[in-house]
Amino acid sequence: MKIYCDENIESAIIAGLRRRGIEVISARDTGDLGKSDEYHLKKASELEAVILTHDVDFLKIAHQWYQEGKGHKGILYAHPLDLSPGECIRMVEFATQVLTEEEMKNHIEFL
Does the pTM exceed 0.90? Predict the structure, then answer.
């Protein structure tokens, strides 16, 4: 499972995921800092990636897209106050091991 990290995901988390062999693309990598949340969700889908975010706005966008019949590749939501960077890395790694890309389609996984 490929992961797209929005601009709110710390570089330490991105580096930790990469060290664990997870394919990660970040908004920094693609030069998309400062873009809208909806842009990032579209970008992740274009890249065939699940988006990893701390931003609760993605939950609202996913609901809106559902009502409009639009799909996405999935959202991994990590509340920034609930998980340390290390815990976030472990939870994302676990999610990539137990969830398939098919299971993640149009799905929100709360870490």
Answer: yes
DSSP 111: -
The candidate with the shortest Cα–Cα distance to 10, out of 62, 87, 108, 100, is: 87
> Which one of 3.40.50, 2.60.40, 3.90.1570, 3.90.320 gives the CATH number of domain 1-108?
3.40.50
pLDDT tens figures, 89-110: 999 999 999 999 999 999 999 9
Q: Is 44 helix (H, G, I), strand (E, B) or coil?
A: helix
- Tell me the domain boundaries of the chain: 1-108
User: Roughly how many angstroms between the first and final C-alpha of the chain, as a whole number?
Assistant: 16
